[in-house]
Amino acid sequence: MTNLDSYNSWHSNWRDLRVGVIGLGVTGFSVADTLAELGAQQLVVAEKAEADLLDILNVLQVEHITGQAALENGGVPQRLVDFAPDVLITSPGVRPDAAVIQWAESAGIDVWVDIDLAWRLRDKKGIPAQWICITGTNGKTTTTQLTEAMLLSGGLRAMACGNIGTPILDAIRLPDGLDALVVELSSFQLHYLGEISPLASAVLNLADDHLDWHGGFAAYSATKGKVYEQTKLACVYNVQDSATEALVENADVVEGARAIGFTLGAPTRSQVGYVENLLVDRAFLEERASQALEIAQLEDIEQIGVITPHLLANVAAATALARSVGVQPDEIREAIRNFKLDSHRIELVGERNGVRWFDDSKATNPHATAASLASFDSVVWIVGGLLKGVNLEPLIEQFAGKLAAAIVIGIDRQPVLDALKAKAAGVPVFEVSETDKQRVMPKAIEFAGRVAKPGSTVLLAPSAASMDQFKDYADRGEQFAGAVRLWLADQEGAANE
User: Fold this and answer.
1) Residue 123 Cα to chain centre, angstroms
2) pLDDT at res. 132
3) Is this structure's pTM higher than 0.85?
4) How many domains would you assign to the chain?
5) In terms of residue numbers, what domain contains 371?
6) Please, where are the H alpha helices in 84-241?
7) Same domain for 90 and 208?
8) How many beta carbons lie within 10 A of that of residue 319, not counting itself?
9) Helix axis angle, 217-225 relative to 242-250, nearest 10°?
C-alpha cells in the first residue's frame, strides 16, 4: 500500500502516484489539470462531461471514461479496478453511498477531495498562504466574500475560493502566490476532508440541510464541526447558535487557539457584536475586559443592502475573522462600505404601487428562508422546489403571522401544501402546477400580482433546491426577476391606456 504521507508538498515525487479522479465538473477538472501538471498517473471517471473539457484532457493526454462507460459494472468500471489507484479524489457532490466510493473504502483506498490535495500542494510558491475556513448552513458565501474584501482592504493578497468562485487548486497555483486563502467549505467537502490546520475557522450556524445526504442532523453537525479541527488562532462561533459553540468545545485545536463569538447583541469579552448602532470588537484588543473597539456603524452596513439580522450576523462573523489576522478597524469599515452582495440574495428586483419584489433564490433551505421572512412584515411568499428531505412545518409555524399569501412551485409541492394547511390554515395558497418550466415563474408572478397589497413584499425564498425546474438557483432567480419585470411593464402599460 502506497504511503500517502510522503505526498505532502508540491515538490514531492507525484509521478509515482496513481489517482482515480471521480467527476469532471469545475472541481474535478481543476484536480485533473493539477495532477497533469504534477505528472501524476491518473484516470478520470465521469458520467457527465463537457466536450471542451474532454478536449483539454486529450491534449494533456489524460485518460478518461465518460458517459455510459462510467456507469458500467454498477458504477465501478473495470478499467478503474485494473488501474488500481492509490487514492481517489472525488467531486464533493458524489454521495458517500455511491458504488465507486464504497468500492474504494472496501479496497482500503483513501478518498480525498480537492481541498486535501490543495493542502498538500500549498507550498508551490514558497511560504504557504494562511487558510481561513468558513462553513455553516447559511451565509457561507457572503461571509467568505466579506472576509476576502476585508483582508484585501488590509493590504493582504487574499482570495476567496473552495466552494465559491475559483477552485482552490487554481488559487494555490497562481504565479505570484497569496498571503491568505478564504476557503468556503460545504458539508460535502468536509465529509471527505482529512486533516488541515487553518489559521482561523468559523461555523456560522447549523440547521436542517442535506439530511438525506448525511443521514441525519447529528452527522451533518459533526461534519460541519470538522472545520475547527487543528485551528491555530481563532475558532469563530455564533453566540445565538449554541450548537456552534459546542462544536468548538469538542474540537481538537492547536494549543493557544481562542474561541471568538459573534453576536447580534452586545458582545461580552472575546466577542464581536453590536451596541446600539455600532459594530464593535471586544475580542482583539488588550483592554477587552472593560472596553470595546468601534469597527463600523449601521449606516456603513446599509451600503451593502437591506439590513437584516442575517446580514448583520455575516458582517460580524467576517469582522471576527479579519480581526483575527490583524486587519485594522478603518480597513474593515472601508471594506464594508464598498461591499456589494451577489445577485439572488434578498435582491430588490422591482417596485410598484407600494409593493416590493425581492429575489432570494439563494435561500435553498429553511434556515436561509427564515432570515428572509424575518426581514419583512407582510409577505407574499413564493416557496417550493426540491425539499431534500426537509420538513417546512416549523418554518411555516414560526412565520405564519407574516404571510399574506403563499404561492407553491416545484416538484415537491404536496409536502409544502400539507405543511401550509397544518401550520398556516388561514393563509391563501396558490399552487403552480405548470409542466412547462418556462411558465412556472410567469404563473407565480401572476398569482402574486393578484394578492399583493400596498406595503407588502413579494418574496422568492423557496427553501428548496432548484434543479427540478431550473438549471440552478441563479437561473431560478433570473427567471423570477424577468417575469417580475414583464408583469410590472404590463401593469404600467395597462395603467397608461
Assistant:
1) 26
2) 98
3) no
4) 3
5) 347-487
6) 99-106, 114-121, 140-153, 168-172, 187-192, 211-214, 217-225
7) no
8) 31
9) 60
